[in-house]
Amino acid sequence: MGLRFLEHALILTHDPEGTRDWFCTNLGFTNGFHPDFGFPVYWLYIGEQDVLHIGKARHSAHQNTYLQTPSDQKDVDYSAAGALGSGRIDHICFNCDGLAEFVERLTSNGVEFSERKAHNSNLYQLFMREPINGIKVELNFAWSEAEQLGRVPAWTDTGKSN
Fold it and tell me: Which domains does the chain have, with CATH numbers?
């Protein structure tokens, strides 16, 4: 079981196109493919790896729901980015292996997490919020690990599961 590498960060901003253009023009990122999440997002690549995701802050209720974690407090505005100078990193993502061990560790430590199958991919994801700073953490595993364990995600390509 272990963390393998930081996979990506999501920046929510008042100006996603300008943010995208700045990173591409000034740092050499390439704008590339991304799944359809039902809200606009840009994925910026270094070579073949998407490493920076950019979205519009406060775009829609669907986006806010999609990006929330189970422990989010109802009276806290986690989507508060959007004003000039307040763009924020929404979450960090780590590529992992050892899904069963992570689930056991998180559960035994009382960490609430949601599970989902990433849109149009073979990723199984766990989402949680780090409680000290409010940072959302995403852990990505191979879908085959979840299949072997018989895990059923709360979210799939078609939306919320029952």
Answer: 2-160 (3.10.180.10)
Among 23-27, 81-85, 112-116, which stretch is predicted with the lowest mean pLDDT?
81-85
Tokens of 35: 């799944």
Q: What are phi and psi of 11, to 5 degrees?
A: -105, 125
Q: In 3-state terms, what secondary structure has residue 61?
A: helix
Predicted TM-score of the model (pTM) = 0.63
Q: How far apart are the first and last CA of the chain?
A: 29
Rounded mean pLDDT of the chain?
79
71-91 pLDDT, tens per residue? Answer: 777 776 655 555 444 556 778
Task: Name the pairing type of β-strands 49-56 and 41-46.
Answer: antiparallel
CB 41 within 8 A of CB 34: yes
Helices (H) then strands (E): counts for the chain: 4, 10
Q: How many Cβ atoms sit within 10 Å of the Cβ of residue 3?
A: 12
Compute the C-alpha angle 125/41/118, nearest 5°: 20
What residues are paired with 9 via a beta bridge? 52, 92
| CB atoms closer than 10 angstroms to residue 64 | 16
Neighbours of 54 (CB within 10 A): 27
